[in-house]
Structure formats: C-alpha cells, structure tokens
Specification:
Layout: E1 13-16, E2 20-25, H1 36-50, E3 57-62, H2 73-76, H3 80-99, E4 104-108, E5 111-113, H4 115-122, E6 125-129, E7 133-135, H5 138-141, H6 147-168, H7 174-180, E8 185-187, H8 192-204, H9 208-223, H10 233-247, H11 250-261
Parallel strand pairs: 2-3, 3-4, 4-6, 5-7, 6-8
Antiparallel strand pairs: 1-2
C-alpha cells in the first residue's frame, strides 16, 4: 500500500497498441498504487483494446521500481462508504481482466502488494522477478477483503496459501509465488524483460480463435462449479460453437500446412 494520497495529477495509465498491447501503470511516486481514477482509466483501456482487431495479447506492467504497491490508502480509508465504492470498482476491474477476450500477462518487479497481488490473481499469465515482494498485508493494516477477492485467491493458490497470506500478512518472493501458482514464472530481475517478451510473444503467435476460446472456456469452468453438459447446456453450446468456428477456420488449415512444411504458422484469426 502507498501512503495516503488520492491526487493523481493527470492520467496515470499509458497504453501502447500493437499485436502485443502494453498497459503501463505510471504513478511511480506512490509505487503505482491504484487510485479510484486509475480504476476507471484501466476499465476504459481494457474496453478500447477489446475492439482492437490487431491486438492479440495484453501486457500489464508498472513503471519504475514497482509493479503495484496496492490500493490508494486515501481512497480506501476515506470513509466506510468510500471504501466500499473502491472495493466494488476494483472488483469490476478484476472481472474485466478475467473476462477480457485477450489473455493478460503481468510483468512483475518490486512490490505487488494488496491490490497488486490481486491483479496477479486475475491475470492469465505472469512473470515475476525473484526479488519481487508479493502478498496481501490486510491483517497488518486492519483491512478485510471482499468475499469475491478472497474467493479469487482461494481459486488461484488454494486454501492453505490464502490462509497464510491473509492471516499473517506475510509476503513472498517471485520463486515462492511461482511454486504456489500465483505467477507463471520467476526469473532473475535482469532477465525479466526478455522472459516477459518471450511469454507474450508465444501467446501472440498462437491461433487467435484457439487462444481466445481457450481463455473463455477456462473462465466458464471457473465460474460454474460442477460444470457438466446435462445441467449447463447453454455454457457448452457457447464453447461448442467457438470450437466449430475454429475447426472451419483458415487458421486450422494454415496450422496443419505449417506443421507439414516444418515452419512457424502465420495465423490471421480467420
């Protein structure tokens, strides 16, 4: 968490478009702590990228020394009502990441605490420096997470690890976070850019219909405990339609041709 301040002084979110579209948190003087206005900016950025036909993957990063030091204490502790508004707004952001058609890959250096840790749990993939500090210090601050956020952590790292984070406030490094499944990969800090670029490029090189459909399918499984075709026919119908579209696509023919010719495929999303 940052020290109390809710004065942003202009936009704190930068977006660089492309096949790999980058969203950068840029509030370095507060460790990229998320203010209420930044939540709105991030929502707008995600909505805009969803309509970009060129984009295939989103990289989420923080400028400077830290990924995200948490929520803005000034916005969260302003009042009980203000804290509740922030919490609901942040939950909408986390769901927007989870439900975005494109995979979101986090690049993590320095602190990923509180809201920063919860961002990691919502992202699809992530690369963290071994030297990063990841955790949720709510017990040390007197805060209580919304039930949805606790539920998300349990789904991501399991009950035992969530208990440890929330009941003790202990932070972990990148390597331990990777062992827990909170991040995809942990690397030395000097290798962070290269490893993140390799991971995002691997996603971008995949067939868009397959990548997007797989993310949507995994979301359906997570959102529907006990998913089965008999009781959730409409969920299966959506996925079956996407699978049929992929099977009839130009990309599947390109993939098979490239395999036979022993060359990288060039997918177009059609």
């Amino acid at each position: 968490m940052s020290s109390p301040s809710s004065t942003d002084g202009g936009s704190r979110i930068r977006v660089q478009g492309g096949v790999i579209t980058t969203i950068t948190l840029d509030r370095q003087e507060r460790g990229n702590a998320l203010s209420a206005s930044m939540l709105d900016e991030l929502m707008d950025a995600l909505a805009s990228i969803a309509g970009d036909l060129q984009a295939r993957v989103i990289e989420l990063r923080g400028e400077g020394k830290h990924f995200c030091a948490g929520a803005d204490v000034g916005d969260v502790s302003e009042s009980a009502a203000g804290g509740a508004r922030y919490g609901s707004g942040f939950e909408r952001l986390l769901r927007a990441i989870e439900e975005h058609p494109l995979p979101v890959v986090a690049r993590v250096q320095g602190a990923a605490l509180g809201a920063g840790c919860q961002l990691l749990a919502a992202c699809d993939l992530s690369v963290a420096a071994h030297t990063s500090t990841i955790g949720i210090p709510s017990a040390k601050l007197g805060l209580l997470l919304d039930l949805e956020k606790i539920q998300r952590m349990v789904r991501t790292i399991g009950v035992a690890h969530t208990r440890e984070l929330l009941l003790t406030g202990r932070a972990v490094g990148g390597a331990e976070a990777a062992l827990w499944g909170l991040v995809t990969e942990a690397v030395d800090e000097e290798d962070l850019d290269q490893a993140t670029a390799a991971l995002t490029q691997a996603v971008a090189d995949g067939a868009p219909l397959s990548v997007r459909g797989s993310k949507r399918g995994m979301r359906a499984i997570l959102d529907n405990p006990g998913l089965n075709r008999l009781d959730h026919e409409e969920v299966f119908a959506v996925h079956d339609s996407a699978a049929a579209e992929a099977l009839a696509s130009e990309d599947i023919r390109e993939g098979i041709l490239a395999l036979g010719q022993k060359r990288p495929p060039h997918f177009t999303g059609h």
